[in-house]
Amino acid sequence: MSERALGVIMREVVARNRVSYGIVYLQITRGVARRDHAFPPRQVRPGVVVTARALNKVRNEALAEQGIAVVTVPDNRWGRVDIKTIGLLPNVLARQAALERGARDAWFVDAHGMVTEASSANVWIVTPTGALITRHADNAILRGITRTVLFDAIRAEGLTVEERAFTLDEAYGAREAFITSASQIVLPVVRVNGRIIGDGKPGPVATALRRAYHRYAEAG
User: Fold this and answer.
1) What residues are paired with 126 via a beta bridge?
2) pLDDT of amino acid 177
3) Sites in the chain below the pLDDT cut of 70
4) Cα separations (Å) of 154 from 146, 162, 184, 195, 214?
5) Phi/psi of residue 140, nearest 5 degrees
6) Using CA of residue 67, residue 134, residue 55, residue 30, what is the dihedral sign?
7) What is the DSSP track for 188-202?
8) Which residue in 30, 53, 84, 214 is the catalytic one?
9) pTM over 0.70
10) Is 57 in the active site?
11) The dihedral of CA 123, 128, 132, 138: what is its sign?
12) 104, 102, 78: which is closest to 90 by C-alpha?
């Protein structure tokens, strides 16, 4: 279908679910076909699923004002994390491990000791010198829609960001840390594996970028 037609469908789904503040989720599959490991013929029509659900803005803002705790887990996912699929078992297990350890989310750490991403979010830190860092978009992370939009907001604020891998020790010593996702936008991280990040409170960079994201996304 055309982008215009898809837009009509998405707005209709939002209206029917009576969502004023929330999230619209779009999934596109190759289509319905006989079970086989090979691709189906090209004439198979793609499947489109659109859902919408309300989010609690007051609760989300309160969470951002408080900040969250995260734990780390080994990154045991397959080698093409950049491809968005429904194969999310490692992500689900990581999030569950975080909840069982009294945290909100989990960060994956690869075999080289580098932080890749969270269970369903991208990870950022602010170094002691004020440098804003997030992992480069390679096969080890999902590029992230919110991450991509935030780059535009960062430029609009006159800031710069360095895209590179960083170690867990760098995160421990960071001035600030935060995650970005579609449902939580910019969410400060104040503890990692029980260790306090910065002064243990949401920092000025994360707080400013959360406000800037809303302004940029709504204006855009």
Assistant:
1) 132, 176
2) 98
3) 219-220
4) 12, 11, 17, 27, 12
5) -90, -10
6) negative
7) EEEEETTEEPTTSS-
8) 84
9) yes
10) no
11) negative
12) 78
